């Protein structure tokens, strides 16, 4: 019984939780902002790179593939730490928030480029030929015939990857970003009680279960009539 | 018919894939309103020849004039030229994310610059011409293969091309669906459309073609009216090919 009581005192201490709820809620807000910025910028850059890659310019494509492979290979935390501690040494100081945003944006860009690219190449060659044979230009064909089909194929892997990378916002706590985990950890130090971490976990669930559900909805919504 | 200047005039076409020459200096000229059938064993280069005629395939050498346009000249606006050259593919290649009508409308709007109402009207008319007025709002996956191919024909003829290229238009169809597509092609022919058809539909060739071209090994071996090619082929390869086809 004592063990249970001490567990509840440590992790479900309602008094502590009530006290630090505003702090963790602020962290939630920051996580939302950070996540949105990462998703919007990362996916936009990934799509842009995939589109540029479809032009088939050899040197440019080598550069894209190299960049993408680098950011797919590096652990996100390594990129964050490198940017946060490395850039000031180069005379460029960068906030923890910016370092986290930039790192995860680059990682999402890299992974989503590969997914978008796979989607583009999965569209049968006949679709290009049919569209081009009616006089549509390369870009018109890409935009109106190929991408709509490619994007539908990419929705499931893309939502998965996007969710996985946005959860990486927790890494920002390492460089002093007061997002959910960062805020919870501060609250834990102030209160000398780990209950705020429970609060943080709940905050992640509150944030990401709807996102996961949204992903599922998008997947069914975009699967077209067969 | 043969005295009017050719609407398609291809000369000395060469095409290599890797080290393999698929076209070895082929000439093809087609008169206005003529229906030319290209037959030959697989690998003879007949599809490649057809695909060169709208530059889906880039010839390595030679010249192609279509409706007075030098197709291979770097100065030619290829997209503008292509809208005068309709093409129908073996695998239909309809856009699966669009309805039949939207499939037809796309190029009307984006290539010819028509507004939505005008394009919708012309698309409806083209689909009516191929007998699919009632299926306009269906997606390709909701149509049979024969219906899909007719939508593909409508998509091409809506642009009012000067010539139509057919690349094995019935090869992917179940036998009972072939007739509908051939009927549409027959009507196009009656309306005076210039057509180049790569196909194994020999009965259709006999009945409808003005001229049959027999190709083998990247060369045009023999050409002439269907009666000559089918009943009195001069070349041994042609004879062998016709014999084999007739057995089926």
From TrEMBL, chain A:
<feature type="domain" description="ABC transmembrane type-1">
    <location>
        <begin position="28"/>
        <end position="215"/>
    </location>
</feature>
<protein>
    <submittedName>
        <fullName>Amino acid ABC transporter permease</fullName>
    </submittedName>
</protein>
<dbReference type="InterPro" id="IPR043429">
    <property type="entry name" value="ArtM/GltK/GlnP/TcyL/YhdX-like"/>
</dbReference>
<dbReference type="InterPro" id="IPR010065">
    <property type="entry name" value="AA_ABC_transptr_permease_3TM"/>
</dbReference>
<feature type="transmembrane region" description="Helical">
    <location>
        <begin position="28"/>
        <end position="52"/>
    </location>
</feature>
<feature type="transmembrane region" description="Helical">
    <location>
        <begin position="197"/>
        <end position="218"/>
    </location>
</feature>
<keyword id="KW-0472">Membrane</keyword>
<keyword id="KW-1003">Cell membrane</keyword>
<dbReference type="Pfam" id="PF00528">
    <property type="entry name" value="BPD_transp_1"/>
</dbReference>
<keyword id="KW-0813">Transport</keyword>
<dbReference type="InterPro" id="IPR035906">
    <property type="entry name" value="MetI-like_sf"/>
</dbReference>
<comment type="similarity">
    <text>Belongs to the binding-protein-dependent transport system permease family. HisMQ subfamily.</text>
</comment>
<dbReference type="InterPro" id="IPR000515">
    <property type="entry name" value="MetI-like"/>
</dbReference>
<keyword id="KW-0812">Transmembrane</keyword>
<keyword id="KW-1133">Transmembrane helix</keyword>
UniProtKB/TrEMBL annotation, chain B:
<dbReference type="InterPro" id="IPR050086">
    <property type="entry name" value="MetN_ABC_transporter-like"/>
</dbReference>
<keyword id="KW-0029">Amino-acid transport</keyword>
<keyword id="KW-1003">Cell membrane</keyword>
<protein>
    <submittedName>
        <fullName>Amino acid ABC transporter ATP-binding protein</fullName>
    </submittedName>
</protein>
<comment type="similarity">
    <text>Belongs to the ABC transporter superfamily.</text>
</comment>
<keyword id="KW-0547">Nucleotide-binding</keyword>
<dbReference type="InterPro" id="IPR017871">
    <property type="entry name" value="ABC_transporter-like_CS"/>
</dbReference>
<dbReference type="InterPro" id="IPR030679">
    <property type="entry name" value="ABC_ATPase_HisP-typ"/>
</dbReference>
<dbReference type="Pfam" id="PF00005">
    <property type="entry name" value="ABC_tran"/>
</dbReference>
<keyword id="KW-0813">Transport</keyword>
<keyword id="KW-0472">Membrane</keyword>
<keyword id="KW-0067">ATP-binding</keyword>
<feature type="domain" description="ABC transporter">
    <location>
        <begin position="8"/>
        <end position="242"/>
    </location>
</feature>
<dbReference type="GO" id="GO:0005524">
    <property type="term" value="F:ATP binding"/>
</dbReference>
<dbReference type="InterPro" id="IPR003593">
    <property type="entry name" value="AAA+_ATPase"/>
</dbReference>
<dbReference type="InterPro" id="IPR003439">
    <property type="entry name" value="ABC_transporter-like_ATP-bd"/>
</dbReference>
<dbReference type="InterPro" id="IPR027417">
    <property type="entry name" value="P-loop_NTPase"/>
</dbReference>
